[in-house]
Amino acid sequence: MPTFQINVNGESKSVEVAADTPVLWVLRDHLDLVGTKYGCGIGQCGACTIHVDGTAMRSCSMTLDQLDGKSITTIEGLSEDGKHPVQEAWKEVDVPQCGYCQAGQIMTASAFLEQNPNPSEEEIKNAMHGNICRCASYNRIYRAVEKAAENMN
Amino acid sequence: MSNSTIKFSRRAFMRTSSLAGGGLLIGFNLFQACKPKAAPPVDLAQLDYNDFNAFIKIANNGAVTIFSPNPEIGQGVKTSMPMIIAEELDVAWKDVYVEQGILDTKNYTRQVAGGSQSIRHGWDALRQTGATAKQMLVNAAAARWGVDASTCTVNEGVITNAAGETLGYGDVVNEAAQLEVPENVTLKDPKNYKIVGTDARNVDIDKITTGKPLYGLDYKKEGMVYASVLRPPAFGQKLVSYDASEAESMPGVLDVIEIGAKVQALFEEDPSFASKISSSNKVVVIAESTWQAMKAKAAITAEWEDDVLMESTENHDQMLTGFLDGTQFDTRRKDGDVKKAFKEADMVLERTYESPFLPHNCMEPMNFFADVTDAKVHLVGPIQTPAWKAGLIAKMLGRGEDEILLEMTRMGGGFGRRLYGDFVLEAAEISDAIRKPVKVVYSREDDMAVGVYRPAIKYRIKASVKDGQLTGYHLKEAAINDNMYGLIPNFFPAGAIENYQVDTKSYKSNITTGAWRAPYTNFLAYAEQSFFDELAEAMEVDKVQLRIDLLKKVDAAADESIEYSPERMIKVIETAVEKSGWGAKPKGVYQGFVNYYCHNTHVAEVADVEIENGTPVVKKVTCVVDCGIVVNPLGALNQIEGGVIDGIGHSMYGDFGFEAGLPSAMNFDRYRLIRMKEAPKVEVHLMENEYSPTGLGEPTLPPAGGAVANALKAATGKRIYQQPFVKNPELLKVPEEPVIG
């Protein structure tokens, strides 16, 4: 099996996996980064969202060779102390119910706010529309993104 | 209502001991304590701490750890149950550390997440436990000072005597552990609560927001391998043969085995669970990683045979309609004579409402860890009914119940699916065969296609009006597999109408079905609340007033099968009218009203629909809830908002059926769940009172679909009789001249 060098959360890692292994499973099974969640495997639910060079992407639907030297950030590496403004807003609003989808929601929101620090209501809703929350904590997800934007400004 | 009317002996459920490293451990059997005249299950002297399912641990340094007894599926009990203990124990919430308790596999427990009952059943016992522990600590301090315990006061873990001297809980725990458990303790007056009724964040929030391992799917153990299971693609099929030669040669694949014999033998002996799991053999790929296991599974070619009738949604529809047209029913409640009422009526209204199957679609797909060794059976994962599954596994593997160690993880949703531990049995059978620690992981496709679904149901409701009064009401249910249960036939409007009847009939299907968030009422509420609106229109009376007038006729005290309180419901309705601006909205806002009682909680909801680009859009839902004392308002609001939006989502979009046993969808590309842009704003109002608390995981979901259906009728002039609403897009079109609702 081929060996890949990947850059995850600021560290260079070497993994030996089949070339078609989705990045999601590389993170979860080979690098013990289980914060990135498996939900659907086909890019529909957003639970596996990570940042690739700062852009939110679905790790279930990409392989290592597609990374091509780019850097990955997972929920574990979003901040050193769990105090990224989006994480702080999530705590302040007390968003989670079961909590399973929330890492993906936070990764989507943090990449979005990086690109659009002053979003409108419609822009927030469009940005978060791709992430399913089965517990339907959508009111709080919206409020937390709004609050994070306030906190970042 | 008094909050401490249940009398029981604390000896029956509580025991204390000193901790090896100093400190006090109080164990209590929560659900034993719930039974008013409970006898201890066995000789208390023989019990060890596995017999207790919740604990308070107080260390010498005063640190308090509360082990939360019940499974956490997102309903918030891991936060709210310890809050109740901490309140009576009188410690500062910020100083409390909460841990998930492990399973007591013995009998006499209700370590279950389901039915919105954790808080309702736990309320008295949790308060008594906290108060008892506090009293023992005070008694220990009083003894040391040589004063009467009643002269001491407590504030946040510090005991003060009349002379102003103080001792912390940690200072006296060793002495307290030696004391008798007091028989009589005083509970706080709810007016003096400092923790109950205040906002507490989810106790796992830091771990959730930083991606720490919490869920079953995150669990790992040294030497663990992964299993992916090939099950029959269609309901009614059985495995004939398979070819795994390609799969076996794939990288990372350790073994391919066939399982099923042990589960089948178990259910020949004990058929209680058999209808919730396929009786076919299954093929299992064991691999070094999840992906390798899933990929190799896809490389197996298998031959399946049709074992029984292969069922389709079309057959189900005909069958259920045939039931409703027929005369063979089980009568579940009968007051007066509905036939006579219909015969003598001035007007009769009859309507039929239809719903599809629904998969649960927990965000965390089903999974479980099992490690079967000669010494023990170690099970770890997300399960709503741990005790039940541990018992079945002991039987299936021929092991003693004391050899089963089951640890519960936080669950990525439950919604009823994790009541059925088919996946726990699979994991145990696999590990028993390969004698390795193994985790069974369902793909999303496995999860959706091997469900224990909300069954398809049809309701037909007929009512009669005579001299402007509702004289008869006849509800008929036709369902796949199960009928409505328990006290549901006695829900409103039972008791309000002289001639009232509820009939049920079901078809035994080989498609596995079971409880889905707010079982049965999740669809019944929509049907009945739509029907009340139509009745009011036909009777030319005010929709809300019709409901209030009916409630006023109910004498709940005269009928012990009626659980709901007409008085509490009327207050909820009146509050909803006021808070939602019912009847006073500007032109262009169309409202739908519902009220409902289920899971011991009273709810009213008003949906506001507006027209955007020619399409009706649900903009807001006002939800008023009476669940008695609210333990954790922050968590309560989350449950309520989620329940309302979940109810709307499944009413609007949830569609699932079968063609020759094959499920209509296997992933989110073909199964639609509600998303951010479709979710309305939910405005919540909680009734303030001192009734004992009831649950919130379910009760706001069932009425939500009805509120939207009633608002859509106001907006479009069209009544929707079938879920999901999007199935009939022409009903969602707004006429060019909008109707005034």
Describe this structure in words.
The complex is a heterodimer of chains A (153) and B (741). Chain A has 153 residues and is of the alpha+beta class. Chain A folds into 2 domains: 3-77, Roll (Ubiquitin-like (UB roll)); 85-152, Orthogonal Bundle (DNA polymerase, domain 1). Helix content of chain A is 38%, strand content 15%. A 5-stranded mixed sheet of chain A has the order 2-1-5-3-4, sandwiched between helices. In chain A, a hairpin with a 2-residue loop joins strand 1 and strand 2 (11-16). The longest helix of chain A is centred in the last third of the chain and has 15 residues, at 138-152. Chain A starts with a strand and ends with a helix. The mean pLDDT of chain A is 96. In chain B, helix 3 crosses helix 4, helix 11 (386-397) runs parallel beside helix 12 and helix 14 runs parallel beside helix 18 (701-716). Chain B is globular and about 80 Å long. In chain B, the strands form 7 sheets. Chain B has a 7-stranded mixed sheet, with helices on both faces. A 5-stranded mixed sheet of chain B has the order 1-2-3-4-5. Mean pLDDT of chain B is 89; it is low at 1-12, 31-53 and 104-112. Chain B is built from 18 helices and 28 strands. Chain B is 29% helix and 24% strand. Chains A and B meet through helix 1, helix 3, helix 4, helix 5 and helix 6 of A and helix 5, helix 8 and helix 17 of B.
| Structural class label of chain B | alpha+beta
Global outline of chain B = globular
Q: Look at the structure and give the CATH class of the largest domain in chain A.
A: Alpha Beta
Count of helical stretches of chain A: 6
The spatial strand order of the largest sheet of chain A comes to 2-1-5-3-4
Strand content of chain B: 15-25%
CATH topology of the largest domain in chain A: Ubiquitin-like (UB roll)
Classify the beta-strand content of chain A into a percent band.
15-25%
Mean pLDDT of chain A, rounded to whole units?
96
Taking Cα atoms only, what radius of gyration of chain B do you get, to the nearest Å?
28 Å
